[in-house]
Amino acid sequence: MTELISRLQNAVGAAHVLDAVEDQAPYLRDWLGKYHGTALAVVRPGSTAEVAAVMAACAAARVAVVPQGGHTSLSGGATPDASGQAIVLSLSRMNRIRKIDPIGQTVVVDAGAVLAKVQDAARDAGLLFPLSLGSEGSCTVGGNLAANAGGVAVLRYGVMRELTLGLEVVLPDGRIWDGLRALRKDNTGYALRDLFIGSEGTLGIITGAVLKLFAQPTARATAFVAVADAAAALKLLRLSRSHCGDRLTAFEFLTSATLDMILRQIPDTRLPFDALPSAAVLIELSDISDEPTLAARLETTLADAMAEGLVSDAVVAQDGTQAKAFWRVRESVSEALVREGKALKHDIAVPVAEIADFVKVMDAAVDAALPGIRPMVFGHLGDGNLHYNLMRPLAMTEDAFYGHGPRITRLVHDEITRRRGSISAEHGIGQLRMSEMPLCKPPLELELMQQLKRTLDPHGLMNPGKLLPNV
Amino acid sequence: MTELISRLQNAVGAAHVLDAVEDQAPYLRDWLGKYHGTALAVVRPGSTAEVAAVMAACAAARVAVVPQGGHTSLSGGATPDASGQAIVLSLSRMNRIRKIDPIGQTVVVDAGAVLAKVQDAARDAGLLFPLSLGSEGSCTVGGNLAANAGGVAVLRYGVMRELTLGLEVVLPDGRIWDGLRALRKDNTGYALRDLFIGSEGTLGIITGAVLKLFAQPTARATAFVAVADAAAALKLLRLSRSHCGDRLTAFEFLTSATLDMILRQIPDTRLPFDALPSAAVLIELSDISDEPTLAARLETTLADAMAEGLVSDAVVAQDGTQAKAFWRVRESVSEALVREGKALKHDIAVPVAEIADFVKVMDAAVDAALPGIRPMVFGHLGDGNLHYNLMRPLAMTEDAFYGHGPRITRLVHDEITRRRGSISAEHGIGQLRMSEMPLCKPPLELELMQQLKRTLDPHGLMNPGKLLPNV
């Protein structure tokens, strides 16, 4: 091991190989404090060539590698295990915007670039990089790629996979695959790019990417809409799509209990309704247009929805300040959950048309299993993706509630699997869901994934204990 | 072999195993008459289970399989070789629209469904399946997936890969991978779907797919625009995007020589200009809006472009009939080429911003290599994808010209490779470009593809002689 450490020091400079426990600490514990581990060393390469040298040294020593970006994974995907036998490879020093092309509408970035920095670079060039999620001030593009990130603009712009043209990847043996092509079309063989996207660091280290940029919208219109339930929201989605098409940028759903929790927990949040609705939708349109025209379209859409009885109340934001206040309610939900207490979290997706039925069936099933359990449901209804969170019955302690956790989660995920849904729509599998993979995937699919893993990482050195069990 | 034939007959019914030469003929020769081969038998299964039985029988007998849809490949991707040792597996009997979901905006189809039939089914449900290309009346969804088809609406809606949510695939050993999920988001492991899309039938047989549908536009605006050259067209693209955003649905470029050829070869084609321009762009906007509003936006865009000196003349179609006449010019180009004589065809892509420079540099280089050679260039400029076709100098015979073919193609493709472009943007590699793969791909990339091929098709039975050399 001394030999490996000295090889790593030669590769990246001694200052960037952290072996003191106090220096390593932030890399060993995820931001929610849910996962922690230990490491042989934390290595911080400054270039793709340095990543390659680190990987070659680790491959030679048969030492496992845990890639890490902003360390914001919600599934423990970037935290090492407790064995202390792996190194953590942090991409945080590789944070450059390499090149921006305003004509081709692409940007080439280091994998360690923070998402917000990429958004800023696009905006400075008069363009838009649309990926947007809660952790955008800390998460990195490499992590977004490894986890195929989603967020609040997927409805219009797609997930990270759909925003990516090319990748640069260091393979487990230290060789560099230069797939940094900025091509909109290229049918010359297998989609290596797509194999690495969403692989959660288990096949190689993504070191750079070419991303798509879009025209910057010049107008936004935002509305908070009170609806009866998810079924009404689904009908409103369909109507909004047929009235607004691609303008529909966000369609976020929140239940009454979730709204109530936010208003209680987060100061200065309020809803534009007289009373707490039984559910609500935050709708955003964006366009290259003027704001009055776009707001008028949103108003017409909502008037039609009201005439059809889909909507009980609706307020279109009168200005940017009010729009921001609407979004603040939606964006406060994670913080409100933390303050409210522990939740059993489920990041599920089903076919969009089934989402309302899922919520109805599931709410009844979990209440039957644990009377008084409190669903706090919100999320990207337009993508068929909800955060189906459950909190303790008020009469039950958190510890007692957590004792029921595995049984309740099984109930939720079995229903999802029956509906051919996803038990991780955007958060990835990581450590959190790895043991559930055999329960939700057909055996043949797991076998194919394991074959691919063995093909690309024959010694099983990449991010062990994540994503795929028993390889 | 008699045993295999009898197993195949048991699997699909004797009537669907064609062994007479006259019955086989249409399956052995591609539609351009460029590729032909022979086969042990042509097998036409009627269901996924029958495909699985055929594959299991072939795997047991170690007999190769050539999957075939509409047989419209431009690269010989679906035609067997001359060995007579393979069976052709035609999906043509599997042509059902299985299910359409107007709320989730998805459609589930058999792989053998003809593209136009899928477009029609979407339209009947008030929705749009946007993939659109010349052969849409014959090509099948399975072929579109195998070749990751492009076409004239990629600018707005993306290529086939981006239009696909789920797949059903029969593996080389006859097992069925049921990945027919209709999920907009699903981060639970490797992207098996994307590995099969674009693999040209070399990894398995796609038997079904879940495709995305979109809101049907209610207004279109079409213009024919005269520009000086590809550089001006590129500036017009940028301006159109910033003025029109997602409304920009098509941006098709044609050079003067190409336009002249179309007008000469195809009766009743005409341009709306006083004189033949040195190049032209066909622009289409679409939106959920009314036609006058959309036409007004296109007119404003073109007026601004004219003020900036990017456009010398422009005509916005006054009605659907005129728009159709504009599109007829663009759509006649393939037929005009056939009538004009033989062409050296190159389906290239470069980063969008480089496309004008590529045309300029390449035109000079091919003329230096063979004075008088006639570039007939057209295509999807907005995607960085042009059909860079070359025709004989008028003083040279076609045979003599064809003698220069390999040298000229090398010149074109070397320039593409230098620019990190693609030698097959949308037509695939097939037989046509297989031997060029080592010239245009880094060795590591080829090696990774070959490893994946061996992993999924260890006996090399899937579509041999296509896509990947030396496996």
TrEMBL record, chains A, B:
Pfam families: FAD-oxidase_C, FAD_binding_4. Keywords: FAD, Flavoprotein. Residues 35-216 form the FAD-binding PCMH-type domain. This is FAD-binding oxidoreductase. InterPro entries: FAD-bd_oxidored_4_C, FAD-bd_PCMH, FAD-bd_PCMH-like_sf, FAD-bd_PCMH_sub1, FAD-bd_PCMH_sub2, FAD-linked_Oxase-like_C, FAD-oxidored/transferase_4, Oxid_FAD_bind_N. PANTHER family: BLL6224 PROTEIN (PTHR43716:SF2), D-2-HYDROXYGLUTARATE DEHYDROGENASE, MITOCHONDRIAL (PTHR43716). It comes from Bradyrhizobium denitrificans. Belongs to the FAD-binding oxidoreductase/transferase type 4 family.
